[in-house]
Design brief:
This is TetR/AcrR family transcriptional regulator. Residues 34-53 bind DNA. Pfam families: TetR_N. Residues 11-71 form the HTH tetR-type domain. By secondary structure, the protein is mainly alpha-helical. It folds into 2 domains: 1-52, Arc Repressor Mutant, subunit A (Orthogonal Bundle); 56-197, Tetracycline Repressor, domain 2 (Orthogonal Bundle). The protein has helices at 2-28, 35-41, 46-50, 56-75, 78-81, 87-98, 102-114, 123-147, 156-176, 182-192. Helix 1 (2-28) crosses helix 2 and helix 7 packs across helix 9. It is elongated, with a radius of gyration of 20 Å.
């Protein structure tokens, strides 16, 4: 029983660390979120903090997982967000929210580059996240194509990759120039791919 209680406390402390880390990174930015600062935020030494994670890289990977969990609570589970009826508003809403937490955007983008290495602790996270995002998008995109609200010139699976690439790429541009409207740009992509917006050449 004591061992089970100790395990439960460890899980709770790990969750506390991740929740506080999200707050610190959102407030201080990625550069200001060293292991030292994150440890101080939860009243631990650096060694004490890393007791709950195998490495700094694993810590930051789990912070990203926690961010996805928090976003899911705020905007609804991704399958729900990606229903045809809510796809545009849900996806654009998440991107608009990202502009309010620049430190987390910095962390995501930097980790995405590092995770190209198959040995990186975040490699599997990014592969699985991308697969899941595209999988949930495809059916919604196909439904929009059936309704005539989205071009069917391009396969829905390819469109799902395009939306993912645009969202990720806009984050990189936005980090260089925060005046860029990420949400507005992605929303414009929906407009551009809607055949109902096509102008009659005779007009």
């Amino acid at each position: 029983m004591a061992q089970r209680g100790s395990y439960a406390k460890g899980v709770a402390k790990r969750e506390e660390i991740l929740e506080r880390a999200l707050e610190v990174i959102a407030r201080e930015g990625y550069r200001g979120a060293s292991v030292k600062e994150l440890a101080e935020a939860v009243g631990l030494s650096q060694a004490g903090l890393l007791h709950y994670f195998d490495s700094k890289e694993e810590l930051f990977t789990e912070i990203l997982r926690k961010r996805d969990e928090v976003d899911s609570r705020q905007f609804g589970p991704m399958p729900e967000v990606a229903e045809a009826t809510h796809l545009r508003s849900g996806f654009v809403g998440i991107i608009r929210h990202n502009a309010e937490v620049p430190g987390l955007v910095q962390l995501f983008s930097r980790m995405a580059v590092d995770a190209a290495d198959p040995q990186h602790p975040a490699h599997r996270y990014f592969l699985d996240r991308g697969d899941s995002l595209r999988e949930t998008f495809v059916e919604a995109l196909r439904e929009l194509q059936r309704r005539g609200e989205l071009t069917d010139v391009v396969d829905a699976g390819v469109l799902a990759r395009i939306f993912q690439a645009v969202a990720d790429g806009m984050q990189l541009q936005w980090m260089q120039d925060p005046s860029i409207d990420m949400a507005g740009t992605v929303s414009a992509l929906f407009d551009a791919l809607d055949p109902r917006n096509r102008k009659d050449p005779d007009e």
